[in-house]
Amino acid sequence: MGMDTEVHSLRDGISSRGRVAFAAAIGAWLLALMPCYAHADSMRCGSRIIKEDDPIEKVLEVCGEPVKRERTWIQRQPQYEVGDRSYSFPGREDVPVDLWTYDFGPNKLMQRVRFVAGKVESITTLGYGK
User: Fold this and answer.
1) Which pLDDT tens digit goes with each residue over 68-124?
2) Which of the listed residues 35, 43, 79, 103 has the most CB atoms within 10 Å of its CB?
3) Is 44 exposed, middle or buried (CB count within 10 Å of its CB: 0-12, 13-18, 19+)?
4) Euclidean distance between the first and final Cα of the chain, in Å?
């Protein structure tokens, strides 16, 4: 029996069900290697929703005090808003960047909210809380 014949008989010996199970196992393994956080579009606090562009005051009112607060600063081009539009102009300004972490308990995923200049820029889902 030649090499090609042996490879074909090995391939033919594996059922399609076995190949699907193998592919599923590889997929599960790859998912396990991914970081345990993901970007979210919104966050639920009780019966209310927090989303991008919500002001920091609304998040505090709806979700309460976070378990952790961090603040840093970035420099960016100055901006002002009129209605739903944002306008930039020349120069640089210091803008606060706040990271708030919410822990909703051991059966819920923790959430990290990133604010830039007092508005929600992103919401990240972390691992399970304590």
Assistant:
1) 999 999 999 998 888 888 889 899 999 999 999 999 999 989 999 999 999 999 999
2) 43
3) middle
4) 61
Gap between the Cα atoms of 105 and 88, Å rounded: 41
pLDDT in tens, 26-72: 555 444 444 444 567 899 998 999 999 999 999 999 999 999 999 99
Token output for 57 = 């005051």
Using DSSP, state whether 118 is helix, strand or coil. coil
Contact 81, 47 (CB under 8 A): no
Q: Cα 17 vs. chain centroid, distance in angstroms?
A: 34
- Rounded to 5 degrees, what are φ and ψ at 43? -140, 135
